[in-house]
Each structure stands twice: as structure tokens, then as C-alpha cells.
Amino acid sequence: MAKENFMNLIAELGNSIGIPNLSIDEDEYCFLKIDETLLITLFRDPDSDFVTVYCEVGCYDDYTQTEIFKAVLEANYFWSGTGGATLGINSEHKTILMAYKQPLGLMDFHHFLTMLQTFINTAEIWIHRIVEITQKGTQDVITDSSTLPLHGVMV
Fold it and tell me: Residue 117: which CATH number?
């Protein structure tokens, strides 16, 4: 039932954005490229029936690591700067990822679309923040979370 619901949500998303054949692959993944800069991955975990959305929002180097880690930790504090998502570090590739996980359950299309739009908007904000931190190096960067949703998507 949850797999069918996920397939239907992805198909309806595709129809709403002009990609009528959008679907999940055999591993239950769907990939969306937004504005040629943001690759969003959606997948359903068959063991838990959760839908997870994630993307890469930037990268870091040894020079910017401290400031980026500080911004990520502050944003993750009660999800105050992430719109309910979580930021993480992939130290092997020196990338910053953003992820959001929610039970699929009886999620309807409106809730799914709202969740996805909030995630994309927040990811775009973080892409710009990481670029700003990288360009400023180790200078102090003001982290203004006033543009982010306070509590993510709650139904």
C-alpha cells in the first residue's frame, strides 16, 4: 500500500510539473533536477515506509570547514535553521547534505507537495549560505534564519 501511495504521489508530482512519465525506479528512488543546480533525491524505505528527501547543498575545504560546521550545527539546533530538515557532513567527499524524513502513511498530494516545496526552498537558501561562507573564508557569517520555516511541515 505504501509503495503504491509513493508511486501515485510521484506520478501526480510529475503531472503537476509537466513531466507526465515521472516515476520511481526499481529501488524506489526518484531524482529531480531543479534549475540545473539542485539534484533532489526522493526514496521510500520499504522497511519503514518513510519517504526521505535529500540533496547536496555544498562542499567545504580545510579552510572553510570550521565556519561551515558551526553554521550547520547551529542550524540543526532544534531544526531552527533547516525548516525541519537535518544538515549533515560527508567527510569522505567533503560535502554538506540536507535530508528530511517523514512517514509516508496516508500522506496526500497536498502535504507531499508542501513538504517538497519547503525542502527545495530551504535547500536553495543553504546553497547560498554555503557559497557565502566559502567566499568569505573564515570571516564571521551572520546566520539569519528568519527566512526559513520555523517548524518544517506539520500536519
Answer: 3.30.1460.10
Q: How confident is the model at residue 106 (pLDDT cuts 50, 70, 90)?
A: confident
Residue closest to 33 by CA, chosen among 20, 19, 16: 19
- Within a domain: residue 142? no
C-alpha cell at 65: 570547514
List, as own/partner pairs, every contact residues 142-151 make where C-beta atoms lie below 8 angstroms and the sequence separation is at least 24, other chains included: 143/71, 143/74, 143/75, 143/81, 145/75, 145/80, 145/81, 148/80, 148/81, 148/82, 148/83, 148/122, 149/83, 149/84, 149/118, 149/121, 149/122, 150/80, 151/79, 151/84
Q: What is the pLDDT of residue 147?
A: 57
Distance CA 46, CA 50 (A): 8
Q: What does the mean pLDDT of the chain come to? A: 89
What percent of the chain has a predicted confidence (pLDDT) above 70?
87
Q: Is residue 151 part of a domain?
A: no
